[in-house]
Amino acid sequence: MPWTLSADPEAYAARVWDLLAARPVRHTIALSILGMARKGHRWSEEPMLFGWYEAGGEVRGAVFQTPPYELGLAVLPAAATEPLVEALRAARHPVAGVSGAGLATERFAAAWSTATGARASTALRLCLHELGSLQPPDPAPAGRGRPAEERDLALAVGWYGAFQAETRSPGGGDAEAMARERIADGRLWLWEAGEGDPAALAAGRRRRSGSPASPPCTRRPSTGAGATARRSRRRAPRTRSRAATRRSSSSRTRRTRPRTRSTGSSASARWTRSASCASSPRASPPPPG
Prior knowledge:
Helix content is 30%, strand content 30%. The chain is built from seven helices and twelve strands. The termini are far apart.
């Protein structure tokens, strides 16, 4: 079978690293998650799954799942879609949802629905932007940006949870550990408005800036943009940044007015109910941005 499935992140890295690293911005999420898994991060007690696809003596496909998150289609050629469905079903691996590039996700959802009789709907759409030159919002939002500190840990963990609830994305069991690591590394920034009241945060992995987030009660114009710009300036003050920002279509936080270019888009599909016969995936429109 051309797909190999494994629970070992090291075996997976040995096979797919070159494939993913050849396009580090487009595959930033897959690379970041792999890096965290290799360092011992776990998102739940359920076993992780990694898979790679070989054809013509080369690795041409890569997927991963770190429960409770859905199956991630890092690289899925069209020819590898049905063999992946077959491999997952042969391994009796449950697939409640899938995320990846739009077309790859649609192909997999259609193939899975045909094989199982499930029906899929689009749950979330994301867009990845690559930062070209940093241009902070003008006019600048009131307040200032600063790196988060240990005293901000509870706030950051709470906002992570609120962001996941609002965007209907699954939460991971290590939110506190992730926040601690980013605070220690200086990769978590807050935007303070008024009398020092936290209004937004921007978190980054080592190769990108993450989604700016703020709860509805603190949202003010451009505070998310200010936090993202301040964090990105700290990362690369004099050189062209290769950082990327990820924007969820269901988040109402304003994105930086960058000068960015869209690097890629992704979609997340989930099975809504079982059907007695094969059916095509039904995509509902994304929530308003």
